[in-house]
Write a structure and sequence with these properties.
By secondary structure, the chain is an alpha/beta fold. It is built from 8 helices and 11 strands. The chain has one domain: Rossmann fold (3-Layer(aba) Sandwich), CATH 3.40.50.150. The chain has a 7-stranded mixed beta sheet with strand order 3-2-1-8-9-11-10, sandwiched between helices. Strands 4-7-5-6 form a 4-stranded mixed beta sheet. The chain is globular and about 50 Å long.
Amino acid sequence: MSSHTYYAPVLSTNSIVIDLGASTAAFSQAMAELYGCKCYVAEATSHNITRIKETELISKFHYAIAGEPGKLKLWIADDECHWGSIRPSGEFKFVNSEEVPAISFPMFLDRIGVSSPDLVKIDIEGAEFELFDATSDHVLQSVGQLTVEFHDFMNPDWSEAVNRLKERMADLGFQIFSFSGRFNGDVLFLNRRMINLSAVGLLKVSFGLKFFRGFIRIAKRIL
């Protein structure tokens, strides 16, 4: 599982972070501790959602993020992280399934009353394609930055879909950085309308310097 690289200098106590596919919310716990910002968590599996502790800064919601609202069949991997996917792929073994409530990303924003989040983390096990397809250009352009784990490492056939999404995001004014080599397990989209990087700033992001070291340190302590 890849790290989630983000651009730290623009985050503060006034920031809003959205954590989609939170597992047990280690990312949100780290964000709350590092920056004192408000975090909204969406997690699909019933096993993990019960393990997330809500605080003044962390609010949890039992949803799978999908293309449309309703119910989804989620296949549960035979893995200690107890993650689930709507489309079992790769070499993973899926031993159980459960029906979970689903909601689109724009509907989730409405549900939590947020119109312009500063950072959105997306790690939803292959459903990221439905998320982007169901989200308008206007809504995407309201986000400061997105850190996304695409799952083309599970199925190389998905790489073409990832490339189309990258082209769309570039057309919408996002600067795109890939940190995971051959596949796209750690991709950062920075909204150039909201985050104006200097040449030095671009160089720092490109080399991934000091953007998620704090998260790794805090997450290890929490876990």
